[in-house]
Amino acid sequence: MKLKFSLIHVFMVLMLLGHTNAHAGRIYGGFYTAEKIANVRSNCNRYDWAAKQRDRFIAQAKYWLGKDDETLWAMVPGQDLPRCIDVTFDRLTEGPKFLGCLKCGHNISKYGNYPYNPEFEQKPWKLTCPSCGTVFPTNDFGKYYKSAIDEHGLFNPASGDKSLLYNLEHPDPKDPLHKYGVDDGFGYVNENGRSYRFIGYYTWKYWDHINAGLNALANAFLYTGDQRYAHKAAILLDRIADVYPDMDWAPYSKKGWYHSDGGTNRGKIEGAIWETGTVQGFADAYDKILSGTVNDASLYSFLKKQSLKYKLPGAKGTRDLFVKNVDDGILRTAFKGVLSKQIWGNQGMHQLTVARCAVALNTAPETTEWLDWLFTHDGGNIPGLMIRNLDRDGTTDEGAPGYTYMWGNLIAKLGVLLADYKGYTKHDIFAEYPQFNATFMAAYRMSVLGISIPNIGDAGATGTVTNSYIDPNFIALGYFYTRDPQMAIAAYRANGNSVKGLGMDIYSKDPESLSREIKSIAEKNPANDGRGGLMSGFGLASLEIGKGTSGIALASNFGRSIKHAHPDMLNFDLLAYGNWLAPDHGYPEYATKWPSNNEWTGSTLSHNLVFVNGLPQKEVWGGHTRMFKELKGFGAFELDGKKAYPDVKEYSRTMLLIEGPDTGNAYAIDIFRVLGGHDHLYSFHGPPGTISTEGLKLKPQQGGTYAGTEVAKGTLAKGFPIGYSHLYNVKRDTIPPAQFMLDWKVEDGYRNVKATDHLHLRMYALNQVDDVALADGDPPQNKTGNPKTLGYVLMHRAAPALNSNFVNLIEPYKQNPFIKSVKRLDEGKNMQVSLKIEHVNGEIDYILYNPDSTQTMQTADGLKMDGTLGYVRQKGGKPMEGILLNGKRLSYANMNLIAAGPIRGKVVKMNRELKGGGWLLVDQQLPVDGSLNGSQLMVSTEGKRDACYSIVGIERQGNLTRIYCGPITFVNDYKGENYKEGLMYDFEEGAAFTITSHKIWKQKI
Q1: Residue 1005 banded pLDDT, cuts 50, 70, 90
Q2: Which of 252, 496, 913, 961 might form a disulfide with 926, Cβ 3.0–4.6 angstroms?
Q3: Beta-bridge partners for 209
Q4: For residues 310 and 312, what is the distance between their CA atoms, to the nearest angstrom?
Q5: Pseudo-torsion of CA 955, 960, 966, 969, nearest 10°?
Q6: How many separate helices (H) and strands (E) can be counted in the chain?
Q7: What is the mean pLDDT of residues 272-293?
Q8: What sign does the CA torsion over 6, 10, 15, 17 have?
Q9: pTM summary value
């Protein structure tokens, strides 16, 4: 793809050339000012926690401080030492992309994507397989490397002594293993022409090692003021500045080698994406140590000596020349790299790179011009990102949690950098874009039961239970810039109800002031009740009963299916007894064009969904909320995912979570409606383990996969739907009953599970389908702790103009089930659903679902409903509790529940500005007593975003009602690209709205 430069890019390059001499006279960097540095060192003498930080940095720098100047200088390699992030991955081959270890093959896969961890001192230029322990390459590459150092002090393959390229354990040239495992830097090539790039991988890790050393030295200087650390760091920086302009990943990418370039073949030391972090590390270290390079005559004498010895093109020998070399060789080179997209990552990465380089440069007017670039529409595009790519939950156009948090975290760092840099006052991200502040709480809000963020898209691993994305200090930072007390409370709760280590600002004169504020606020507020909620901006609906590892929760994602998300809108998982029991695969084997990703882990079929017409879902922004209500012991939502399959009339999922008769139990109901198409396949998988069934007569298929008896596992889809060939060990029932049961007994060792837990997941399938199959499907095998396989049930229907209403009850339990029986009372001939659930203790639950609430629904057992959803619990033949959602009547025996039905009206006026919060005026007289606070306002829209908002407050305004939805905006884009042609909105004035109503009846005792 040819690069297209805009006029602003041309201007910026010319601008660079015009400022190359503006380097003299700088004592300090732009971020690490004299005041901040003084505070750091003073705080280390006043506070134990600060002293511990200082001591840790000193320990990390000890290894590097012990190296002499010549050794440090020589450690920095140049362009011609190859590098890559996988030993065998080949993007160009038509054969297997990945070969594994040269000795033990794919046994190494279980150690992750990057299994080799070089020991740079103990085993230089060697990789040890963590599976079989074999060490590669077999030759002494270190000796060969030294033989290839040219007159400029760089590795030159043409200069190397080829006689050194032999297997040390087989020195005889006649030995057939003489060349086995030998790597000259470009890999050992096997008999099939495939390369094992041991040195390429080592060099990637080696550069990380150098960057880590550079930053250890810089931190040690920052905290101690000991100029020895700055001296050593300056040697590394100066040498990196010599080689950095010539660094280019493209020659290695074109060989089919693998790095983080996003398929663009661009990068410098690393692929374009990760290069952003590499150069940020360089710039930050430079900013930290600049003041430590004053009056260091030995440093400049050494650099001059090396320059003369190795015939380097630039003059050296003074501090000004050192500053000029780093400014030009690293900072200005990096900015040019961003303009050419050699340095370009996920949103936030390259913007932060420019900002760090600009602040480290700290030179007018160049720094200002670079920072201005961040806010141009064809530059850093910050305004466009804030409106077009950011939603009201503080998440982005990335559907995978880690990637969406990363975006916000990076922009927050950028905001902090701009706020703290006194040389630039044109923009304040936190003030200009108040909706961005939701980013600080995004991960905290997404945590289910307070113990785990769902593994959505390219995130986590199969069944991992973790809150690792939640950073209490990030939330505390949000409180610092917003003074929102909810952030203070959340930071405190996320930090284990403590302020230990929270909100400490080492650069401040009073570094613990923020921590004291947070503690004061949090201790005055009770803990959150832990129930779930709706993040309609991101697209996550969660229902919770109980708390922590003793609770049970549903989580369904209906947001992005683009970028690092998967085509899995409306997928769900169940968190029970501290484990995900319908687990998403998590991060694929490789987040690139990889068969097991494209056609399995990253496909629709591998998820808990209905696969329509043998085709994957479309990649879209997200679905829409139709209903959401969470009450004590009962919750329900209905989500519209039609955009994923635009050719069908209906693609929706209604789910309920209901507390069982005994505390600690709960069950889920899943109603999945698909109207249209000709082939519907309901796919569901439970946890790893054995599956028992009742009601099915399964016959093993003789070989092959779900794609056919002659189709081998993993065969690329051609002539059959994507994913079918990844389902194997197939067993079928071609004449299944209308109701059957499956029970997954969770295997010992699955994440937190022990054999003594006797943990199960039971499914009651209540659907008449054409055929049912059980099959195995493998999650990614290179993620630590992932199970070998997962057991799938596949319920299939096919017919012209097909309408399906898949109904299933899902019961997690330990030891013994608490549900005795489940019966579908309706005949399954239309979209209405009525269920009778009998519990082991004799209590009975009735569920009524009616998508067409204008029609009265009645059962033979005497239940009658005018509404969308009804629930009744019976004990001793008498109703004890009833709940009605979006209805006017629910009656059974002596219960006669009357309600007003859903609240409906029209939007009369709305806030059309970016600031001022999400308020609107509606034509209905709504209660102002707070009873609707926390409810969901669902506004009709044809837009791509879900126009569903949590109600924060309601007040009367004449004949209208003013609804406030918090510090959000209804703006979702700019018209045009230059931010000057107006704004676009989630919805427009005049749109209809709905608020889900509910009414509860309880038997008086």
Answers
A1: low
A2: 961
A3: none
A4: 6
A5: -160
A6: 22, 42
A7: 98
A8: positive
A9: 0.93
